């Protein structure tokens, strides 16, 4: 059944809901401003000192009085609106669905499997902290609406750039060339930029040409070197397209990335090509965002991203009181999840965690599962993918709650796929991502690190329970330092993350177990920090003759100064044996 654009069953209910929210909004906004005027970010405090502005105490004093009076004046109207708004949440579907009609149906499908039986898929996840402005300031982030527009524009800038592959004839004698650093313009401002400019629609993502699974925006740059050493007996192919297998067999028997990938800024370690990039990966197929709690910010993001991602689910979650076994306690905020996809969304389902506690119980955190249409294979069989995103319980020291939520996630994903799988289709990827709120190095997170979820889904950054691979970088920034010079621009943050010494100053350290002193890192091990943002994938749930290889893992610095998390990207290369079409 096709997804409905509105979460309400008919226009009348939607209209009553809109009237109720219109009555609530002024009171809510005045309360938000009342708190925000009293809470400054470190950036604002620094700017006041530099400008020698001493009027701020007067602004706080009179602003607090004015907003408090306006809050009291609009409270009766808000109460009336609440009486209209709250009962309607029981019949509300858990998300809005925006579909941007393409100029041609061909632009929404990937023809890689149809043409050559292989394709590359790119995913990214980011926690944006788009809370109401007053609450975001407790995380040292303000101006939620401006940040939402700026974040959307930066994502579009990165995603719509040409997917350039640079081939270096001799990597040993030529330096690393990264198109994200040396060729393309980037946003350097630590502030929120020009938020009134809208992005231009991108070029078609999936071309109609017969180039094997290659994106239309991909380019190849060949850089010869004169001082090459001994040449190989077998010459390397001069050109590599964007979907070429990045984990080919190397001399040592391990899979290694092609030189075109390594010369783009990627590095190879533990069979995983990885990169710290100042731009979002080009041609992201599915984007998962967390903590998009503010409704206006979600609409701003949708408006900016919709020329690129034609299918968007936002305002995901439940509000107010829900029927038993769906959500516990009154929900003031939605789940904060936001899903943007280039591919058509065939089915989507949301579940709310039933064991939330404390401040986390105010939000309808849960799991969103989606089934997307990729295209068809060489025999005309439909090709689909599963994508799941979640945001787990936040407070430290409550691993039992997160483990229960991981149990729910595992069950709900299985139920969703069992209910929506069809015999005449091939599943080519099954991805789970989001903010898990635990890492793989903190002694305090030992319970979650050993959860059976990691036996089903593969984490490219994980060497084992409690042990990260040596190249991994933490994704949680220290909030008080968000606007310091070393990390306030994408380029500066990129350089900082690549330095072990600098990274320790800005990435959150591991959490020790209660009553036990922290010894970190162990002797001879690198300093990594807390990586709480994950992209996982599994292979036992996809078509039997599909093979999945990691093309690249990316730590993205493009949102420097706009959020307290480092976005993560994953590109998978999926190949399908020709015989699989006969199954």
From TrEMBL:
One GO cellular component term: membrane
EC annotation from Swiss-Prot or TrEMBL: 3.1.4.12
TM region(s), chain numbering: 12-31, 60-85
Catalysed reaction, written as an equation: a sphingomyelin + H2O = phosphocholine + an N-acylsphing-4-enine + H(+); N-(hexadecanoyl)-sphing-4-enine-1-phosphocholine + H2O = N-hexadecanoylsphing-4-enine + phosphocholine + H(+)
Enzyme class: hydrolase
Segments forming domain Endonuclease/exonuclease/phosphatase: 259-549
Keywords, alphabetical: Hydrolase, Lipid metabolism, Membrane, Sphingolipid metabolism, Transmembrane, Transmembrane helix
Pfam families referenced in this protein's UniProt entry, alphabetically: Exo_endo_phos (PF03372)
Annotated pathway: Lipid metabolism; sphingolipid metabolism; Sphingolipid metabolism
Similarity comment: family membership: Belongs to the neutral sphingomyelinase family.
Protein name: sphingomyelin phosphodiesterase
Species this protein is from: Acanthochromis polyacanthus (spiny chromis)
């Amino acid at each position: 059944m096709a997804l409905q654009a509105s979460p309400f069953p008919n226009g009348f209910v939607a209209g009553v809901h809109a009237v109720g929210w219109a009555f609530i909004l002024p009171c809510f906004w005045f309360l938000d401003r009342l708190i925000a005027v009293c809470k400054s970010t470190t950036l604002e405090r620094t700017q006041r000192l530099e400008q020698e502005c001493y009027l701020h105490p007067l602004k706080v004093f009179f602003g607090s009085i004015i907003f408090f009076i306006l809050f009291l004046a609009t409270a009766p109207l808000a109460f009336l609106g609440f009486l209209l708004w709250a009962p309607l949440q029981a019949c509300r579907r858990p998300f809005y669905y925006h579909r941007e009609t393409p100029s041609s149906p061909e632009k929404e499908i990937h023809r890689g499997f149809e043409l050559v039986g292989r394709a590359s898929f790119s995913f990214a996840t980011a926690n944006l902290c788009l809370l109401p402005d007053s609450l975001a300031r407790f995380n040292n982030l303000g101006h939620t609406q401006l940040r939402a527009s700026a974040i959307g524009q930066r994502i579009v800038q990165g995603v719509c750039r040409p997917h350039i592959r640079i081939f270096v004839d001799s990597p040993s004698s030529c330096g690393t060339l990264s198109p994200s650093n040396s060729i393309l313009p980037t946003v350097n401002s630590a502030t929120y930029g020009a938020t009134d400019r809208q992005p231009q629609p991108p070029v078609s993502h999936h071309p109609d040409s017969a180039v094997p699974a290659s994106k239309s925006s991909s380019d190849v740059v060949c850089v010869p070197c004169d001082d090459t050493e001994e040449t190989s007996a077998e010459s390397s192919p001069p050109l590599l397209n964007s979907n070429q297998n990045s984990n080919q067999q190397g001399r040592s028997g391990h899979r290694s990335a092609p030189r075109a990938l390594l010369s783009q800024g990627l590095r190879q370690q533990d069979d995983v090509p990885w990169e710290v990039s100042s731009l979002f990966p080009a041609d992201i197929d599915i984007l998962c965002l967390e903590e998009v709690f503010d409704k206006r910010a979600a609409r701003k993001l949708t408006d900016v991203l919709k020329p690129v991602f034609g299918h968007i689910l936002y305002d995901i979650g439940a509000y107010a009181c829900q029927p038993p076994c769906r959500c516990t306690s009154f929900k003031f905020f939605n789940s904060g999840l936001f899903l943007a996809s280039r591919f058509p969304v065939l089915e989507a389902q949301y579940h709310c965690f039933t064991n939330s506690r404390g401040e986390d119980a105010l939000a309808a955190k849960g799991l969103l599962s989606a089934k997307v249409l990729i295209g068809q294979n060489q025999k005309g069989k439909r090709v689909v993918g599963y994508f799941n995103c979640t945001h787990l319980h936040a407070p430290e020291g409550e691993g039992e709650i997160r483990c229960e939520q991981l149990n729910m996630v595992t069950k709900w994903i299985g139920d969703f796929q069992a209910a929506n799988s069809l015999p005449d289709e091939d599943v080519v990827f099954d991805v789970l991502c989001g903010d898990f709120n635990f890492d793989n190095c903190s002694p305090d997170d030992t319970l979650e690190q050993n959860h059976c979820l990691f036996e089903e889904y593969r984490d490219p950054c994980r060497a084992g329970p409690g042990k990260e691979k040596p190249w991994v970088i933490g994704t949680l920034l220290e909030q008080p330092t968000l606007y310091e010079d070393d990390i306030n621009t994408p380029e500066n943050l990129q350089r900082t993350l690549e330095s072990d010494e600098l990274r320790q100053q800005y990435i959150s350290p591991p959490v020790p177990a209660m009553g036990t002193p922290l010894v970190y890192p162990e002797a001879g091990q690198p300093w990594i920090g807390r990586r709480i943002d994950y992209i996982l994938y599994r292979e036992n749930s996809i078509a039997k003759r599909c093979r999945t290889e990691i093309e690249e893992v990316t730590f993205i610095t493009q949102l420097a100064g706009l959020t307290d998390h480092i976005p993560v990207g994953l590109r998978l290369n999926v190949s399908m044996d020709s015989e699989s079409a006969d199954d």
